[in-house]
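lol forgot to send this yesterday, sorry. struct tokens for the thing we talked abt
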């Protein structure tokens, strides 16, 4: 008999499994499905980045093992971009580590800081990788609820003292998936103060800093005084440049924290394929030029989605960033009931809020990574 480890048995039930199965059933009936479920851009990577990668692919010096920490030129491109975009100084020598997508770095991060029984503070609803990575490291998860009345920021004063004393690590991520909320300097200042008082490490996930709307520009955790004493920021080229399939991201910040994550990685992986790092360097060195047309596409979709949802009478907060709408389920429906109804009756895939943690109950997430916005909303409207 094959017996898997406790850490696999203890995994939370995969709430998307039912959606995937239902989607297959509905598709088999010949229904034209509009998928607003996944946070994966439907637009191709900019051609210029692809061309740079093609040339790099043909260069034999890129065919060998890369270093886990990343090519110096890639780390330099990261540092230069942080300076230009956020006015933050990071040393490419020891304050940057490349990641095979930021998910990889996030998933390995608790292994560097969590001993069995240590606590990690994790947002709910939140990116599912945060709690699972803590559990894989034999840590305990304390869920910080993100509530609308608090602008979907965790209320730090509500975290019990005895938990804080056992806390080694805190995950935060703004602009936020799934709520699309953003954080400003005051919140980060409070986080830094708490981290210093209770001696824990902060991991800020800033994957959506460049998917922003109107004149709003998200800030970096590292812009705030003292941030580098306590934390790192995870970043990714996935969303900024439509590069989800390429697997390239990085962490920047406190050098001891970066080094500790690096130690884990040297023992697990062998870095990002160098041809991809060369393409990533090009992307970061030309970030504004390459990201601007991408932002414009999502801006147009965001405006359309927002207008249509308002007309249809849905309750939500206008996103300032990310490609998500975090929408209240209509009266009388749970998250799962409503998303199931949309799929079965209207061929619309959205994500039930409770799939991101129990505090997401009562909401559903729409992702605008699909061009058929108006048709999708008219179908959603006709369901209620
Ligand atoms: C998409 C996403 C990432 C980035 O993942 P990659 O592994 O870099 O593709 C990180 N955090 C959140 C919350 C995300 O939604």
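and heres what i got for the seq, position by position
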């Amino acid at each position: 008999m094959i017996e898997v480890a406790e850490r696999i048995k203890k995994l939370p039930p995969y709430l998307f499994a039912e959606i995937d199965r239902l989607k297959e059933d509905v598709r088999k009936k010949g229904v034209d499905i509009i998928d607003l479920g996944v946070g994966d851009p439907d637009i191709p990577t900019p051609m210029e980045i692809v061309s740079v990668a093609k040339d790099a692919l043909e260069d034999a010096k890129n065919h060998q093992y890369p270093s886990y920490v990343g090519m110096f030129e890639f780390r330099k491109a990261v540092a230069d971009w942080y300076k230009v975009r956020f006015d933050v100084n990071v040393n490419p020598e020891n304050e940057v580590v490349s990641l095979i997508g930021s998910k990889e770095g996030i998933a390995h991060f608790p292994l560097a800081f969590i001993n069995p029984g240590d606590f990690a503070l994790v947002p709910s609803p939140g990116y599912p990788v945060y709690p699972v990575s803590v559990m894989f490291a034999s840590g305990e998860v304390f869920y910080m609820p993100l509530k609308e009345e608090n602008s979907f920021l965790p209320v730090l004063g509500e975290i019990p003292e005895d938990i804080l004393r056992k806390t080694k690590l805190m995950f935060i991520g703004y602009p936020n998936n799934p709520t699309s909320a953003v954080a400003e300097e005051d919140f980060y200042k409070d986080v830094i103060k708490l981290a210093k008082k209770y001696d824990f490490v902060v991991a800020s996930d800033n994957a959506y800093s460049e998917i922003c709307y109107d004149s709003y520009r998200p800030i970096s955790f590292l812009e705030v005084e003292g941030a580098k004493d306590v934390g790192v920021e995870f970043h990714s080229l996935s969303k900024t440049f439509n590069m989800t399939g390429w697997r390239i991201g990085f962490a920047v910040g406190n050098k001891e924290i970066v080094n500790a994550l690096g130690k884990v990685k040297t023992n697990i992986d062998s870095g990002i394929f160098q041809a991809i790092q060369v393409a990533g360097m090009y992307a970061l060195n030309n970030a504004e030029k390459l990201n601007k047309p991408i932002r414009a596409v999502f801006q147009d979709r965001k405006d359309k989605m927002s207008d249509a949802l308002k007309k249809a009478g849905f309750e939500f907060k206008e996103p300032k960033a990310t490609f998500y709408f975090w929408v209240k389920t209509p009266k009388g429906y749970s998250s799962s009931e409503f998303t199931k109804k949309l799929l079965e009756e209207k061929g619309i895939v959205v994500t039930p809020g409770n799939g991101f943690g129990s505090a997401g109950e009562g909401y559903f997430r729409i992702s605008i990574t699909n061009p058929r916005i108006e048709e999708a909303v008219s179908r959603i409207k006709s369901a209620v």
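The two ends are 48 Å apart (CA to CA). anyway ping me if u want another try
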